Amino acid sequence: SLEHEYELKDVVKEGHDRADPTQFELLKVLGQGSFGKVFLVRKIVGLDSGTLYAMKVLKKATLKVRDRMRTKMERNILVDVRHPFIVRLHYAFQTEGKLYLILDFLRGGDLFSRLSKELMFTEEDVKFYLAELALALNHLHSLGIIYRDLKPENILLDEEGHISLTDFGLSKQPVEDQKAYSFCGTVEYMAPEVVTRKGHTFAADWWSFGVLMFEMLTGALPFQGANRKETMTQILKAKLGMPQHLSMEAQSLLRVLFKRNPANRLGAGPDGVNEIKNHSFFATIDWDKLLKKAIQPPFKPATQRADDAFYFDSEFTSKSPKDSPGVPPSANAHELFRGFSFIAPCLLEPESPHQTRIVEPLTRMPYSKATNINDEYEMREEIGRGSYSVCKLAVHRVSRIEYAVKIIDKSKRDCQEEVDILLRYREHPNIVTLRDVYEDDTQVFLVMELMRGGELLDRILRLKAFSEREAAAIMHTVISTVGYLHQHGVVHRDLKPSNLLYATETANPEALRLCDFGF
């Protein structure tokens, strides 16, 4: 029977008791797809009580045969795999109608999100991510698993910035002749032998590794046509245009990864991954230290407060987290969730309603709240105006705290980058605090702390000249804040007295806040 095909044995975390649904408190709905839901859960019993996990709940009745096989494959692969750069399956169990997979809950986002923000990485960044990825792929290969779906979305980052390879639904353990034949994955990353369905081996992953490297270094894909068919033709026949700004070592590695004959591809020879590790591009990598996570990642994701929910769609997070049957959405709905674990900050409930700064995201802009701003804030008089925006005073209806609301005309400016920067670095004492984000069809509303002391420009005009002591204190604040941004790869680009505001009326230089990253 079909049910038998989907037999799931329990998985129990080492040193822990067998799990069941009652041992997990449901905190948020994180995602929903064609055959189940994903929840943020907290374990409430056992040695790991209090630990946050991602719980994937699959309804047996709604799983098609292929989905059943695919989910069984995900589960089997995850059970076999134990590696620092691959997502962990902690528990698996089933009830009469459902299957449960309890997975890592990762807070760092995915490489794709970072790539889309930065367009391309430095070679040093790329070297680090590719080196960790090479170790993860080699581990899978050593278990007889071809990954086959390598793309930035499937590479998640943990809180420290190390990679975690995820989403094993397309991975395949080759049959006896050592070749796999089915056709799936994202076409732009496919090796020629996958496109032609001639059967592929582990070497297919090293081609995809090359595509990923090219994309990270250049911000573009090496083979991309106007449609799927044209892309496949390019993969099979097009000459690769090698960007000349890349180092000779990077160009050399790309050339040996993009060999259309898989037998000639780097990594496919008898030395396997050592061919990759010994390439001059990786000359500065200490592979032993890398495996121990002893090398500092190039980027540390922002660790948000416990009440933040930025990485999730409020379509899901606003729902009551009930593990119930219910009609599943259509099969072409969102993937159940991107990858096999979660791209997320901590989502615990706030301890006090007066300390919350929840920003629940919307489908339109990843971080905006689904509700109307007027439901939570009373809008008051205008307190400032710029070329693309108006600033108004607003009062929170419950706490009665005053805030400044920057209202941006969407037809004139895309404020996505400004919001990203403010969310990521708002914990810095001298960067303006963004509290909430709202959006309608024509405007974006950024709710920020009210700057009661006005602009530095006003103080300069009023005083005509500062004492050296005050000027030095102001410059110390500005330099340390700008230095902090530069360390994190952010350039303000519009540094001027009108973009430095005092949070308090005392004009204390330490109360200065840098704002307006939207130039």
Topology:
Blueprint (H helix, E strand, L loop, with lengths): L1 H4 L18 E10 L2 E8 L8 E8 L5 H16 L8 E6 L3 E6 L7 H8 L4 H20 L12 E3 L5 E3 L26 H4 L7 H16 L9 H10 L10 H10 L15 H5 L9 H5 L22 H4 L55 H4 E9 L3 E8 L5 E8 L6 H10 L8 E6 L3 E7 L4 E2 H8 L4 H20 L12 E3 L9 E3 L5
Helix pairs in contact: 4-6
The CATH architecture of the largest domain would be: Orthogonal Bundle
Count of β-strands = 15
Which segments are poorly predicted (pLDDT under 50) over 5 or more consecutive residues?
Answer: 1-8, 168-185, 305-318, 324-364
Look at the structure and give the CATH class of the largest domain. Mainly Alpha
Shape summary: globular
- Tally the helices: what do you get? 15
CATH homologous superfamily placement of the largest domain: Transferase(Phosphotransferase) domain 1
Strand content: 15-25%
Helix/sheet category? alpha+beta
Overall helicity: 25-40%
- Biggest sheet record: 5 strands, antiparallel
Order of helices and strands: HEEEHEEHHEEHHHHHHHHEEEHEEEHHEE
Count of separate structural domains: 4
Write down the CATH topology of the largest domain: Transferase(Phosphotransferase), domain 1
Numbering strands along the chain, what is their spatial order in the largest sheet?
1-2-3-5-4
Radius of gyration: 25 Å
The residue-averaged pLDDT reads: 75
Question: Could you please describe the fold and organization of this structure?
Answer:
With 519 residues, this protein is α+β, with helices and mostly antiparallel strands. The chain is 28% helix and 17% strand. It has four domains: 127 residues, Phosphorylase Kinase, domain 1 (2-Layer Sandwich); 182 residues, Transferase(Phosphotransferase) domain 1 (Transferase(Phosphotransferase), domain 1, Orthogonal Bundle); 77 residues, Phosphorylase Kinase, domain 1; 60 residues, no CATH class. The strands form four sheets. It has a five-stranded antiparallel beta sheet with strand order 1-2-3-5-4, with helices on one face. The protein has a five-stranded antiparallel beta sheet with strand order 8-9-10-12-11. Strand 6 and strand 7 form a beta hairpin. Helix 4 packs antiparallel against helix 6.
